[in-house]
Design a protein that fits this description.
It catalyses: a ubiquinone + NADH + 5 H(+)(in) = a ubiquinol + NAD(+) + 4 H(+)(out). Keywords: Electron transport, Membrane, Mitochondrion, NAD, Respiratory chain, Translocase, Transmembrane, Transmembrane helix, Transport, Ubiquinone. Helices cover 66% and strands 0% of the residues. The relative contact order is 0.06.
């Protein structure tokens, strides 16, 4: 029990040390007009440097990340399919997981988040 507490304490302390080092290194000591203005190959910037971001693109990227993680979660199950160690409860859990993901795809499709047109 003492080793576990020591490990947790060490991990928390290391996290705080890295946090403060990052905060210290992230502080900009010189802030001037040239530092905060956008640089476009030596020319004066044309228009605003802050372009409005498309929320639909962001939602599509989030959907991609969710289904990318789904593939990572399904990979060990696919590798175990041929072995005799996979029980009926594993198959039922896999089936439930796939039904949940398919329901998510159907919901996103009906909502219109999978459309590329703006």
């Amino acid at each position: 029990m003492e080793k576990v507490m020591l490990s947790v304490l060490l991990a928390v302390m290391l996290g705080f040390v890295l946090l403060f080092v990052g905060l210290f290194l992230g502080v900009s000591f010189y802030v001037g007009r040239e530092k905060v203005s956008p640089f476009e190959c030596g020319f004066d910037p044309i228009g605003s440097s802050r372009v409005p971001f498309s929320l639909r693109f962001f939602l599509l990227a989030v959907i991609f990340v969710v289904f990318d993680v789904e593939i990572v979660l399904l990979f060990p199950v696919v590798m175990m399919m041929g072995s005799c160690w996979m029980w009926i409860s594993s198959y039922l859990a896999l089936l439930g997981f796939l039904v949940l993901l398919f329901g998510g795809v159907v919901h996103e499709w009906r909502e219109g988040s999978l459309e590329w047109e703006m």
